[in-house]
Fold:
Amino acid sequence: MRSVRIIGIDPGLRRTGWGVVDADRGGLRFVACGSVVSDETESLGARLRQIFDGLTRVLAELAPLEAAIEQTFVNRDAAATLKLGQARGIALLVPALSGLAIAEYAPTAVKKTVVGNGHGDKTQIRAMVRCLLPRATFDSADAADALAIAITHAHSRSWRRFEAALSHEGAA
Structure:
């Protein structure tokens, strides 16, 4: 079976994490990860452009076939939520412009998949990402979160194929 390259994206205005894995029946292999950092002294538009340019470079260099992005949670600070939503819009736009299929996952779904419960903290996520991808090296919690999002998508893909095979067997 051919492997599929997946990019996970953890959107943020200050730092947008990204992580790339190859997934096949043999499991997951770490490819690369990092963060796109925007300059806080710049205008909002300039910062969104920095995220756009950074993610565009990553996609051009690593050529993923699918993208997975964390859904935005709403917090008490409406202005911060709005800015995060704008960064998330860029994180959705870049893979869409490249023609990638995009899946979205709630933060609790990512934590449940990687940690085992929907309320894991950043330390637990980092530890489990290291366990699942022993060759992974990441410089930030955002990059680790992005890898966790890619892992979640890889597991979700496997589960959907399994369900399809079961339903096909039942129809025969």
